[in-house]
Structures are given as structure tokens and as C-alpha cells.
Design a protein that fits this description.
511 residues; alpha/beta; eight-stranded mixed β-sheet; five-stranded mixed β-sheet; globular
Length: 511
Amino acid sequence: MALPETSHPRHVVVVLLDSLNRHLLGSYGSSEFDTPNLDRFATNAVRFEQHYTGSLPCMPARHDLLVGALDFLWRPWGSIEIWEEPITAALRQVGVTTKLVTDHPHLFETGGENYHCDFAAWDYQRGHESDPWRTRPDPSWIGAPKFGRNLPYDTNRGWWGAEAEFPGPRVMSEAARWIRDEAPAHDRFLLFIDEFDPHEPFDTPEPYASMYDPDWEGPHLYWPPYAVDAQANGVLDAREARQIRAQYGGKLTMIDTWFGHLLDAIDASPMANDTAVIVCTDHGHYLGEKDTWGKPRSPVFDPLGHTPLLIRWPGVDAGVRGALTTNVDLCATLLDVFGASVEHRVHGNSLVPLLAGGASTVREWALSGVWGREVHLLTQPRAGSGVVKFACAPDGDNEPLVMLSNRWSTMPIPGVPQLRLPRPDDRATLGTMPGTTVPVIRQPFRSGDLLPFWGYGDFAHGSVCFDLDDDPGEDRNRVDDALGRQHRSLLADVLREVEAPPEQLERLGMA
């Protein structure tokens, strides 16, 4: 059920904070770090309790959000395909002005190079993480330990100093300026703020850098490792782990401060009463939970995959929604709000019925994962309950693998310039994607092939199944009992329903 057209807000602001950890926000019960402005926003918003990632990591997640179609079953990382239409193009057709404000470097490099193109206008604040902005560092800058990272940030970092000059604060300031100076000229608009903070590097000025670890001496450790069993294997010790987690907290509190300035601008706007505001993320970030750091190769446990979603909606009281939701649902919601549609196959369901109170659920299951890794099935046994998570690992060797794409690109890694996505070879054929007759390059991979790097790594955890209602710590693996068997069978049915490549079922032992 959708609300009547007259009940839809005329303006929507989406604030995507990258790597925003649900379990570290005050509005979700944490007191570890200060998030007063996100907490202030949450007091007037609907808080979604069972929101989960879909495709991972960064660009696949943005594909979910801006295209509305799951990515990870067909390809690892890439731009918008030629048979797809981003939501921005669809909104243009119905007269909605779209604006992007971002400092997210992956949007402007190979593998993400066309997500911004169909916005009516876009603004890129330069210098974050892998952004190739400067060719020489400020000679006065003294860097900090990197844990093996080699990114342009260390070249860029010396070119700003004061807090307001950091990329995240610049993004929030520009977005607030647009709300004040330009938004009033538009009858309907979507402002999409893709803010890279609190993603690493967890680099902040004082007082944030020392806020949660005042006794630390020496350069702050703002580059986290990507590792499973990190302390057990000596990647870092307990003192270093505490310092890195504290640096994430400082970055979180800093961007919360600047989010407050944006929120003030929205609230002061004459359009405030007709503006929906959505706060979301692409995924979380492990900070020592299960002795795991970053986004390494492992099942998507809750610190990474169970994400915050806060929506302030005109005419809807603050409250809680316990229904299972996922990121493709946000694209469907925006299409619903503005009365737009796309022609390609989508996987989302609008959240408007949940917000309006006319529905208690919008989906029975959700899929999540990284290409070439475990495929996750999420179900909700009862309305408002916790979910059951089943992560299915390969049955034996991780093969066969297949990639389908007509935009053969991937995330570049500045420190490893020779690492590229393997090109299609003479085994490639032309296939199709669900919902389109456009011929698509279909490249198979077998053991011994050069793979997209997401496909490497072991599956030490095997398949796992957790009932998160009574096991929120994901400590009791029920993969071998009736719950696990039931979800294994259901996953096979779901993969066939979405017309996943048959190789997915074969490598998971479901063919």
C-alpha cells in the first residue's frame, strides 16, 4: 500500500555516512562515543531495527541504493550497466531536481565512474582516501603508521589543517549551503549526500583525535588493518586496537558535529515541513568484534551487515519499525515518493507502507554478500522479531565462478597498480541478465584462473546459521540442525527466484 500522492513529501535528503556502525550510535543504545546530533535527529525519526546490507562493499552497495538492483550475485564491483537506469535519470523524467554532494573517491574512479553523471548537479570535495588529488605532499606533514596501506591520502593530507577544511566537514557545509541558497528554487528535489566519513582513514584534528584515548603517545593510528583474528595473529596488540577504535570514535563524533550543521539548515528551511530526511550507510566496519578488523574475507557478521536506518518523514511520528529491510528498498522508496519508475529488474520494496503504518512487513527474505564469497539469506520468522541469518559457503572449492558485465572495470588500488580485473578470455560467451535482452559478457572462472581479488581467500568459518533473536552475538552455529537445513533449502529457492547464475547454486552445492 502506498500513501496518496498528496501525502508524499516533495523533497528528500539522503545522508549516507560510509561505514556507520549501528551498534556504536546513541540512538541504538551505545554510550561508547558521542553522537549528539544523530541522536537529536533520531528523537524525531522512525528507527528501523532490522535493516541489513545487500551487496557489498562500497560501490556494490551504491548500486543497490542508486539502481535498486542487487549486484553481488552477478559481478564484484562496477559502474551502472548499459541496460540499467539510475534513479536520477528516472527522477529527471518526472521533473525532480537531483543534487549530489560527496567526497567519496570511488565515485570518480574506474569502477564507479558513471554514478554521478545523471544527477542534475554534483559537487566533489577533494582529497579523501584514494582520491588522486595532489602529486606531492606538503613537506611539513609527518604521517602516521599505515599498517601496510599506501594511498594518496598521505599526499593530500598536508594540504588542509583546520577542522573545517577536512573533506567531511566541507561536504556537510556545501550541502547546508545548497539547502539555504539553491533548494528553494526547486519544486521537488532529491539531495543525495554521500559522505565518506567515518570510513578510514580515521584521521581528525583535535579535540577528536585524543577524545577517546587521551593517554596515547605518538602519532595516532588512523589506518585500521583488514584482518580476521588480528590480535591472535599479532597483527596488532591490545593497546593498538584500543587506539584504532578510539580514532574511529573521533571520526564519528567529528562528522556528527557537522551533520548537526546540516540538520540545522534543513530545520531552518521554509521547506522543512515537506522534507523527508533519510540517514543510512552502505555497511558497518569491524573494530575488533570477534577479533576482526575492517572488511576482511569472512561471513558478514552483524557489526558489518546489520546497519542503522533513520527516517524523518513529514506527518509521521517518531517510532520504531521492526520489519526486515535492506538497501535496495531505499531506491524503491524514493521511486515511490516521486512517482517514478525504471525499466530494469529491481529487487526492492517501498518502505512507505511501513512509514505510513499500513503494513507490518515489506519482505519475507533478503539477500546479502560479496561476489565470490558466502551468500547470505536473511529471514524474519515473526513480524518485528530478530532475523535468522544463513551464510552459505562453497561446497568444496570455490568454483565455478562467473561474472556478467558489459562494463569490465573494477576498483583500482594505488598501492598495487598492476592489480586489474582479469579481462574476458576465449571462454567468454554472450548471455543475458534477468529482465533484459541486452547481450552481456559472461566470463567463467575456474581453479587456477586469475580472479577478481574478492574471490580469493579461504572459508574458514564454513557455512553458518544464527537465530539472532536469541543469539545476537552469533555464537551458536545452527547450520547442521533443522533451522540450518530449512534455510539452505530456502536459499536455493530464492536464488532460483531471482534468476541468479546457475554457477552460484553449483558452487554452493545446491545444483
